[in-house]
Amino acid sequence: MTPSTSKTPVRQDRDALTPRAVHVVRGVNPHAPGSAHLKMGRTEILATVTLEDKPAPHMRGSKEGWLTAEYAMLPRATSDRQARERNLQNGRRHEIQRLLGRALRASMDLRHFRNQTLYVDCDVLVADGGTRVASVLAGHAALHDFCDRLIHSGKLSEWPVVHNVGAISVGLVGEELRVDLDYAEDKVARADLNVIATSDGKLIEVQGGAELGPITVDEYMRLLNAGVTAVGDVMQELSRQLAVIQGI
């Protein structure tokens, strides 16, 4: 079963394989040693980095530090007010936090932060689809800002970001493969994936699946390949902006 043609959103501003425009500003939080405000279409994320001189309990005695991530959506990030997430057992939030942690740990050489813990907080200011993939991008940008400041201050002599890690959503909307779904597309997609990869095309994680019945292996592989290509495109633009916007 596929959505009816009349319900399939038509893209007005970009073609099927073009991600939404990405814009990032670094150093937006004067209290955080690393921060970034990222817009991806209408979705907006604020990410901050905190360094704690204390190892995670399971990393005591290790030669590496640890990185963990937290994710939250502000009450008016969506069209209807959502209650603040006071329930620590929120399943969706924990799933996204684990994804963010795995993705951002893969980007860092944590030997530079032995006996320390990095916290990356990603807060959704405005949600229009793709909040978890935009949070990966925002988290990467905030870590870039954080590491840049350490290098400029002389506290670190070697660049600790070993992989430029990004993410993108891909989906089948009707019979059309689309990259970077907004909310209107996501809610009618018959299959969607979140692809987390490096800028040079190496996979870290893939989440998602069919929504309205099974899809073929060929369709899945087309989605995966389009996602990896789109991550490379997004990271090329994001890296360009991070190199220009110092915020130091």
Q: Secondary-structure map with pairings?
A:
Blueprint: E1 22-26, E2 34-40, E3 43-52, E4 66-73, H1 91-105, E5 117-126, H2 131-153, E6 165-173, E7 176-179, H3 183-186, E8 191-198, E9 203-210, H4 217-244
Parallel strand pairs: 4-5
Antiparallel strand pairs: 1-2, 2-3, 3-5, 6-7, 6-8, 8-9
Binding site for phosphate: 92, 130-132
Pfam families: RNase_PH, RNase_PH_C
GO biological process, one term: rRNA catabolic process
Concise description?
With 248 residues, the chain is of the alpha+beta class. The protein has helices at 91-105, 131-153, 183-186, 217-244, and strands at 22-26, 34-40, 43-52, 66-73, 117-126, 165-173, 176-179, 191-198, 203-210.
Outline the structure in words.
- This is Ribonuclease PH.
- Homohexameric ring arranged as a trimer of dimers.
- Pfam families: RNase_PH, RNase_PH_C.
- With 248 residues, the protein is α+β, with helices and mostly antiparallel strands.
- It has one domain (5-244): Ribosomal Protein S5, domain 2, CATH 3.30.230.70.
- Helix content is 28%, strand content 28%.
- The protein has four helices and nine strands.
- The chain has a five-stranded mixed sheet with strand order 1-2-3-5-4. A four-stranded antiparallel sheet has the order 7-6-8-9.
- Strand 8 and strand 9 (203-210) form a beta hairpin.
- Helix 1 packs across helix 2.
- The chain is globular.
